[in-house]
Amino acid sequence: MSQNSSSLSQLALQKFKRDFWGVFSFWFIVLVGVISVFAYAFAPDNSKHANQMHLAIHSKKPGFKVQMLVLPPALENNQSFFDKLFFGKKHTETEIPISSYQLKGSTLYYTEYASDGLQGADKSIDLSNYQKIDSNSIIQEKTYLFGTDKYGRDLLSRILIGARISFFIGFVAVFISLVIGIFMGSVAGYFGGKVDTFIMWIINVTWSIPTLLLVIAITLALGKGFWQVFIAVGLTMWVEVARVVRGQIISVKEMQYVTAAKALGFNDFRIITKHILPNIMAPVIVISAANFAAAILIESGLSFLGIGAQPPMASWGAMIKDHYNYIILGKPYLALIPGFCIMSLVMAFMLIGNALRDALDVKS
């Protein structure tokens, strides 16, 4: 029996490997996952939430370059390496965009950057007041590959760090939906009768409420925040999982291997977890992939409405909200880049879901 199960798994894996878009989507999702975990290691602006603002260089096009005066932070940064790696620097250098500079002794004379043909203010700074400063690296040329947003923040850094919310909300929401959905569906399908009627009533009531409206209600009840959105999205996605699990259990609970397990005296918990669930997980895996995509879209919609991740936290949906009016102002990339990121990740999950459906189909 185990050899047969192993061979079926190997056949499904071989079929999945032959699906180009499924494999491509898998590695794309792995890449986004690595970027999400180590976002601050890849981001040019590794301050917390990539929130270094320079209003003088707001809304600049991709590839924009500027000279930056970099001064050491006023407070010493005592963060651990892992804290910086996963949560960003708390105390970062002071950066001032400049158009020209001149160093005379220990005094630096510079002209602040000003856009639209304006002349920036002329200022000076005494470098002797700063300890541990390298006069050779105090002026740096910075390149903004994706340009800057309306607050002058590095758009590439915000995109990379914003991937963390969109990616992990899929995992948290799907995990919550699987725990609740599999439990409710298993109980309803296996025991039937009044238990099934009561659980189906809960499922139908929850199903009748629009998803976005239910998420908004749960979010308002739990409060605005990072984890509240994750929980709210997860609590609205269990219904579809429960219906699928219930239907699958109803169709297999009268089969011979379940009857044999009952005859051997196994308890209901073992029969459900050890005998029934492993044989009906194929459609659950497929629906989980679709729920990943749905969770990303719901979170993006909540952030667009201002209910999701709160500023200054980076989120793709919030970035679209901040810049959608720039589409008619000649700078559509500020909204299109995060929109393309959402589209790419959602499409990857949908394609991998289709590939898993084909690979796990016993009829093909």
Automatic annotation (TrEMBL):
Its main location: membrane. Keywords: Cell membrane, Membrane, Transmembrane, Transmembrane helix, Transport. GO terms for cellular component: plasma membrane. The keyword Transferase does not apply. It comes from Formosa maritima. One of its GO terms (biological process) is transmembrane transport. It comes from the Bacteria. Gene3D superfamilies: MetI-like. Belongs to the binding-protein-dependent transport system permease family. This is ABC transporter permease. It is a multi-pass membrane protein. Pfam families: BPD_transp_1. The chain crosses the membrane at residues 20-43, 165-191, 198-220, 226-245, 276-298, 333-356. InterPro entries: BP-dependent_transpt_permease (IPR050366), MetI-like (IPR000515), MetI-like_sf (IPR035906). It is found in: Cell membrane.
